[in-house]
Design a protein that fits this description.
The complex is a heterotrimer of chains A (426), B (179) and C (344).
Chain A lengths: L2 H17 L4 H17 L1 H16 L6 H14 L2 H13 L5 H14 L5 H18 L4 H13 L8 H10 L3 H29 L12 H10 L1 H15 L5 H18 L5 H35 L1 H11 L4 H18 L2 H18 L4 H15 L7 H10 L5 H25 L4
Helix pairs in contact in A: 1-2, 1-14, 2-3, 2-14, 3-14, 4-7, 4-13, 4-14, 5-11, 6-7, 6-8, 6-10, 7-8, 7-19, 8-10, 8-19, 8-20, 9-10, 9-17, 9-18, 10-18, 10-20, 12-13, 14-19, 15-17, 16-17, 16-18, 17-18, 18-20
Chain B lengths: L1 H37 L6 H15 L2 H6 L15 H36 L2 E4 L2 E4 L1 H4 L1 H21 L10 H11 L1
Antiparallel strand pairs in B: 1-2
Helix pairs in contact in B: 1-2, 2-6, 4-6
Chain C lengths: L1 E4 L8 H17 L5 E4 L10 H6 L5 E5 L23 H13 L2 H9 L2 E3 L9 E4 L13 E3 L3 H9 L3 E3 L6 H7 L4 E4 L3 H4 L8 E3 L9 E7 H4 L4 H31 L4 E3 L3 H24 L5 H18 L6 H11 L12
Helix pairs in contact in C: 1-9, 3-11, 9-12
Classes of the chains: A mainly alpha (426), B mainly alpha (179), C alpha/beta (344).
The structure holds sodium ion (NA) (2 copies).
One sodium ion binds next to α16 of chain A.
Chain lengths: 426, 179, 344
Amino acid sequence: MDPVTIGVLALVALLVLIGLRVPIAASLIAVSFVGIWAVAGLRPAMSMLSTIPYTTSASWTLSSIPMFLLMGYIAFHSGLTRGLFEAARVWWGWLPGGLAIASLAGASGFAAVSGSSVACSAAIGRIAVPEMARAGYDLRIATGSVAAGGTIGALIPPSIILILFGIQAETSINDLFLGGLILGLGSLAFYVAAVLIVWWRHPERLPRAAGHSMGDRWKKTLEIWPVLLLIGAVFGGLFSGIFTATEAGAFGSFMALAIGIGRRTLSWARFKESLVDTLLSSGSLFIIAIGANLFTRLVAMSGLSMQMGDFVDGLGLGTLTLLLLIVLIYLVIGMFLEPIGALLLTLPLFLPVLAEHGVDKLWFGLLVAKLLEIGMITPPVGLNVFVIHSVARDYVRLEQIFAGIVPFILADLALVATMLALRGFM
Amino acid sequence: MLNLLETAIARLSMVLGALVLLAMMLQVVIDVFTRTFLGAGFPATPDLVGKYYMVAVSVLPLALTELKRRHIEATVFTHNLRGVPLRVVQMLGFGIFTAVLAVMTWGSGQEAIRQMSRGAYIEAGTLKFITWPSYWILPISFALALVVLLIRIFETLTGRFGDHDDDPVGALEDMQEEI
Amino acid sequence: DTIRATSGFGPNHAIAKDVYPAMFAKLSELTDGRWKGRDTPSGLVAPNEMSTGLRDGVTDFGPLLMPYFIADYPESAMMSELSMLGSSAQVVSAAVTEYVVTCAPCQAEFKRNGQVYLGSDATPLYDILSTKPVKTLEDMKGLKIRSGSPFYAAFIEKTGGAPVQMPSSELFESLSQGVIDATFSSPHEVIANRLGDVVDYVTEIEEGVFNGAATTTASKMLWDRMSAEDRGALATASQYGLVAGVDGFGKQIEEVRAEKLVTFIAPDQSLIDARDSFNAERLANAATILEGRGVTDAQAKIDRYKALIDKWEGLITPEMTPDELAALRTKEIWSKIDLASYGE
Ligand code: NA
Ligand code: NA
């Protein structure tokens, strides 16, 4: 069997196993192992299974993910977040989809301190979802808005994916960051539009709260000073150069813990619960990250990606058709691979082709970042959706979150179409 | 007997995991603090966090995650199954997960033995930072998870495993009462 | 036959752009097209997985950064402790390669890991790349500088700065936000790692090089597929690649200067003196440090390496072309090796 066939069969096998309720991590690892064995032999397959779990998890940079999860859980269990959403509700609850919009805005805010999409979802997920559920929001739109909001985390700087693109494609990272800021805010605007459209079609899914007087509002706002202190400390420390984006999560957890203890709202039992919840989320997420990493190696090894590059190159398409095809390819890749691996795998294939067509690298970098982030919320392997599932799985099924994502994917596609249309002006 | 084993595994992973999480948080904060106010950070923080704490936080909870049935799976095509078809689907999931864990336990164990025999270390600043023990975190964690999965297979075969789909709405009501 | 190489550092890295393309072109020429090469620059084997990747045939060929696996290569990575020796990257690259090829304990290390060593490159001399001007010893006080190896960490401590360890993936952000003030690196990284976007000054302290990369390393499984003649062709072609890579670094530095991407600062005498006294002390202690790592008879080995540096300082002249350099390395190093038994 030739390697490309093996690659295609692996994709099919993965879909079947996931559909048959085999845990997603086990499906990814099993298919990768058998696939690498078929392409390259048992020894390389064994070798990768022996080393990649270590090299994937032994990462200082990824440490922000459990730390942001811990911060979210401590903030939730000590009642900090409840106040925050109370305040959001008295201010914006009367607006159509006000809480969903507040969550999106909150995710965009966290995007400025976290470099990755998963860390951003982890930080905001535990805070926002239960509060929206309590306000009577449809669980699909509640979880979908947070999973989608997390993707803004990798667009607004700092952004690991844009730094990587800048280095690999010899593009100014400062320019990419400026573009990423605009793109992130653009995404926020499109997501807000998606929420409003859902509200317009199904007002019962996003119930509006009664209006509140200004006095009420300020009273509620003053009550949330501990959260404002937490947020202020994290942002202040980051922007004054005291700590890095990776360290921000640990510092945030520490602050949340200190505030919870100081206000006596965090009991010993709830503190333990925060730790166990964090472990359970890490336990379910990192093994999927290991699986997704192994699967990326299989795709690299099978030559499927190279074949794709040659195929696209050989078609001799016009620039717009070529770009549409590449958009389509990234959407499919994004279904299965994680963004960093997918970026590393595909850039060497597409950059030369696009250079021939005179496509601006800065614009393309932003497009790729956006497309790969869409992959974070598309089935079957959507890491952001898994994060939200892991923090909200007591009351929402995975499929419901994927269903809730649909309006936001449509918004993303509209944004991608806008980017394609605006390309001529860059 | 099996219950006793499950409880022991759960306790062990909770206590160790929680300690690692706290150590990670405190060490990063201390590193930031000493770097800012004393000029030099806590030695080897990125290495200790990356090579030890992160490996532990990533894989040590695997057994606990299965005990609490928190591994992420898609139930969209299977949530109406009952009886024998449900048992078959459950067995497929447990079987594949068990096979994967068995291979990873063996493979990462071989790797840990190799790293130990070389006395693997890295150079962190001017320090010699020993890394080989961190490789043992993987086979130990995978083996713990493997034990839990074997218990699951035994339970499924003997009809004692009564996993039903979650009741999201009921759980939400429980949560609202609790808080 | 095709060599499946994995340069691992991405499509824009010198290994993917200069070293491997030049090497594969030469290999194809020397073997009349019997052997070709194909590089997967990223996504298959990461640099920190390269040792097992080569051993188990995940890839045929790749760059091995020995400091990542220092416990596996105490003898072959010895020269990173002698980073202060040598006046140019081409000299260091040739001397390190000759040393490892002709060092029995080094060869045993590669053999034990299922690999065949075919050469090292070296970076240009390291400077201080910083966000604020550094000219005097006084300017070093309290400066937070990222250090990639014990050699630089010790130098930073000695001159009153604060060494900070962080992965290279965080370098850009940390410089940009002021978490650190500077990094020790070659000025070609102003372009290669986009550091020019955050760094404004380069203090030309010329302190050491990075020489710990066995950039052309073959899997033993590939070596077993090759005849003695084709092995010779691969060893020769590797020298052409390595020379081209070092040459590429030089061109990037010229570009940094020509386009005035940063301000170059000449260090004053206080900083130069601090460097020279540090280097003298470090060199005097090198044998002790190396024996602590398990290198036996270290002083004799240091002396042999010093002699090789002197030899190549005499052989290499600034006006040599890359092809002449590669031919010289082939003649001086590889023509004396029996390739039927090398690596076995
Ligand atoms: Na961000
Ligand atoms: Na996806």
